[in-house]
Specification:
12 strands; alpha+beta
């Protein structure tokens, strides 16, 4: 207390006492606030330290550490940073967009493929995709094809499928469809034409020719043993089918006729010296102890447009390795008279498929000579 202040009376003492009490109160209040501020500062510093530690942890890359065996060998991972999360979400979004684009493309492709299949089916069944009948020319061509097939072969209508489209997938499906139909009926066809058992030691030959005024249909069957090795014989029919079928008669075919080749089918194309189109789809099938080759001539091919003469051709060939080291071969070939897409058949007086060296017309004996060439495996052609 200031020494200059003297309590002269009670009033002054009381006044001074109030002043002192007020000073003490204010001092305590200020002390309390200072303490509170100090505590708050310390608390904020602790909070700051914790947040800095968490931030540092979040900034660290994700790591994997092994835990104790008590946890069953599981692994604990630290939390991903938000940058990692954002990057992962960005990648997932990009993948989702790509997948969505791919699926849309697949939907469009499948829809287009389905329409092509529908078109193909309607062509085989005699109607267009809108449900109406085919045009007069289409019906004429279909009727012409039906007329050119013997009754035994006509019993299986799907064998008349002779159309290939340009679309790659539909084209591949068409080849498989045609060759599979022929393949699954191979034994039935051999039985229909009275082939002997494969173990039979005797050879077999059968010719069924149907003639009318302007056309003919021909079925040729042969079964016999041959010395050519099994693998070599298969290779001849695989790579040199046109030459083995003697489509040029006695003239060897030196050119490569393979046009398209997939896993189970080969397409052979050529035009003979007489102007006949050969467009054969061949299927190759292997079973235990034997190999089968089937072939069908394609009448309508969107990738091979022409106005040449052609014949409807079908072939079934079985090659089997025998215990005596030889091979047994079964061969059944069917072909029609020449025709074009604009006329049902080329008259015999007009068609000159083979001629002798002096230019005279061929006769039926020459046709049989050609069949003999077909029935015997020819040695590889040399350039």
């Amino acid at each position: 207390m200031d020494s200059s202040v003297l309590p002269d009376d009670d009033e002054q003492v009381e006044k001074l006492d109030k002043v002192l009490r007020r000073r003490i109160y204010l001092r305590n209040i200020r002390r309390m606030f200072r303490h509170r501020e100090k505590q708050e500062r310390l608390q904020l510093l602790d909070t700051l330290s914790e947040l800095e530690a968490k931030l540092q942890c979040l900034k660290q890359p994700r790591t994997t550490v092994d835990t104790d065996a008590d946890d069953g060998g599981r692994k604990a991972t630290s939390t991903l940073t938000w940058e990692d999360v954002a990057e992962a979400m960005r990648e997932e979004n990009s993948l989702a967009e790509l997948e969505n684009k791919f699926l849309k493309h697949e939907v469009e492709r499948v829809v287009a493929f389905g329409r092509q299949i529908q078109r193909w089916i309607f062509i085989q069944n005699g109607a267009n995709p809108k449900g109406s009948l085919k045009s007069r020319d289409q019906r004429k061509e279909k009727h012409m094809l039906i007329e050119n097939i013997p009754r035994r072969i006509l019993q299986v209508p799907t064998w008349r499928d002779t159309t290939l489209f340009a679309d790659p997938e539909l084209r591949k499906l068409g080849k498989l469809w045609i060759t599979q139909q022929l393949y699954h009926n191979t034994d039935r066809m051999f039985q229909s034409y009275w082939f002997p058992q494969i173990e039979s030691p005797s050879s077999y030959i059968y010719v069924d020719a149907e003639f009318d005024e302007n056309t003919y249909n021909l079925v040729f069957c042969r079964q016999y043993e041959i010395l050519t090795p099994f693998e070599r014989l298969c290779e001849l029919y695989r790579r040199e089918l046109c030459d083995q079928l003697a489509v040029e008669g006695s003239t060897r075919i030196r050119e490569n006729t393979v046009k398209e080749q997939e896993e189970h089918t080969i397409q052979h194309q050529m035009i003979t010296r007489g102007g006949e189109v050969i467009n054969l789809v061949c299927g190759e099938f292997h079973e235990e102890g034997r190999s089968l080759f089937v072939a069908q001539l394609i009448i309508d091919d969107e990738l091979f447009l022409h106005d040449h003469h052609m014949r409807n051709r079908m072939c079934w060939i079985e090659i089997r390795a025998m215990p005596n080291g030889k091979c047994k071969k079964r061969l059944m070939c069917y072909q029609t008279h020449c025709f074009t897409k604009t006329e049902s058949a080329v008259p015999l007086a007009v068609r000159k498929p083979w001629r002798t060296r002096n230019g005279s017309r061929t006769n039926f004996s020459m046709l049989l000579n050609k069949l003999h060439l077909v029935s015997t495996s020819r040695t590889p052609s040399t350039p």
